[in-house]
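Trying the structure run again after the queue cleared.
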Amino acid sequence: MASHLTIAEVAERTGLTAHTLRYYERAALIAPVARAPGGQRRYAASDMEWIGFLLRLRETHMPIGQMQVFARLRSEGNTTAAERRSMLEQHLAQVLASITAMQHAAEALQAKIGHYQDLEASLCRAPTSPHQGSPHVPRNPSTLPPGPRQAARNRRTGR
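Done. Tokens:
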């Protein structure tokens, strides 16, 4: 990796947009990034490592507010290590609970899919009626029993 990357290079490598990277800096998720003489941001390897960790937190659905607290504690140095560890342990417990819930949901979906596969298979094996598959033969409407609307009309009119 180059020693200092532009915002465009970081965006390309992380999948974040330049807008998001600037937002992360404004939101204090990323410490102010070093600037080139022309004022352009230049990201160091340590910035990239931290952004990678922020992406992991985001993938686990850690709220931005919690990420900001974690970033602030990180900026305060090693004296906050116990607090940061505790935050991560609590978040991990939530992530694991979410994974368990998703596994249960996936099992329910698999069971329902199996039900529909069995139902489809039984429909394929069901005996066919003698008229099934034969071409439609128009029938005389006067010989057909009345449909539900006509039957209701007949009851109202006394037919």
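The mean pLDDT is 87. Worth checking whether this holds up in the mutant runs.
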